[in-house]
Specification:
alpha+beta, 10 strands, Adenine-n6-DNA-methyltransferase TaqI, Chain A, domain 2, single chain, elongated, 2 domains, three-stranded mixed sheet, 39% helix
């Protein structure tokens, strides 16, 4: 069974609104989105956050890849989350690292589903002098560039930490969005990677991340989706562990069978068989018979 493909299929069903049924009693996502926009506008007027810079990408007429179920709505990531990044303090500046106590992570940290261990520690001076920002627990980290599988990976901060410039830090305006958004980015890993631009090492950027179109379900349905996903993923984990156990058992069985064979314990001996010593003499009359040598394990009769 291709469990990797099965995981992808379940994630795709989830973000297309086909994994769990819709409930007409759920508050439509459009109402939730409007409430978030009003709150953002208030924070902008109070000077607590900056108004997003309008780009060509945001002014173009959107093209949505598929129809959404009743109660869902398309939106941009920046509509429902604040998106930032960080920096890499100069390594030659000891004041930025010596006795640092602020966790700092880079894009390679996204190889795991959650980030609990920092890549390094930096000082408060590094925060003051650079574009580093300390993000709270629960922030989603998306790798914007990196070699191999790194670009497009998503992880979740389980510690407060700053990031380097290769990471997009996503803080949903509604904390309950976090689980669904993480599932969405996991499902869109390959699609997100395809948006990268550049020469020898294509990169994503904050603009592409911020303007990424999100199919947003009602909040209640997001919770149902996450619960259902956990159920299915746990079953897939059992299957994968079972596959490992089977493979390990097969490996051990092969070793055991070969070991029994070369020790003459796999099949019974037949006293009517020509002894191996006679066979060896016929093959090479000058060969020395060593089966009686005490340095060798005792062989079956005829070997």
């Amino acid at each position: 069974m291709n469990t990797k493909a099965l995981r992808q299929k379940i994630l795709d069903l989830a973000i297309h609104g086909k994994l769990v049924p819709q409930d007409p009693n759920d508050e439509p996502a459009s109402v939730l989105l409007e409430r978030i926009r009003d709150e953002k506008e208030r924070l902008i007027k109070e000077g607590k956050i900056k108004r997003p810079t309008k780009t060509k990408a945001t002014s173009d007429k959107p093209h949505y890849p598929y129809l959404l179920p009743e109660g869902w709505v398309w939106c941009k990531l920046e509509d429902i989350a604040s998106i930032g990044t960080g920096a890499t303090p100069l390594t030659k500046c000891k004041e930025y690292y010596l006795n640092g106590n602020i966790p700092w992570v880079n894009s390679s940290s996204t190889k795991d589903s959650v980030i609990e261990t920092p890549s390094n520690y930096i000082t408060s001076k590094a925060i003051q002098d650079t574009n580093c920002v300390v993000y709270p627990k629960g922030t989603l980290i998306v790798a914007m560039y990196g070699e191999g599988k790194t670009r497009g990976q998503v992880s979740e901060l389980r510690i407060e930490a700053a990031t380097n410039q290769a990471c997009a830090a996503i803080c949903p305006f509604e904390k309950e969005f976090k689980n669904y958004l993480k599932l969405f980015f996991e499902s869109n890993y390959l699609r997100l990677r395809a948006l990268a631009e550049g020469g020898t090492q294509p990169n994503l950027n904050l603009g592409k991340i911020s303007n990424y179109e999100i199919p947003l379900p009602p909040l209640e349905e997001q919770c149902r989706i996450f619960t259902e996903i956990k159920h299915w993923i746990s079953l897939i984990d059992v299957i994968e562990n079972g596959k490992w156990n089977i493979n390990e058992t097969i490996k051990q069985a092969k070793f055991k069978i070969l070991n029994l064979a070369i020790h003459g314990k796999l099949v019974p001996q037949d006293p009517t068989d020509e002894p191996a010593s006679e066979l060896l003499k016929r093959i090479n009359p000058k060969a020395e018979i060593t089966s009686d040598n005490g340095h060798y394990q005792k062989l079956p009769e005829g070997w």
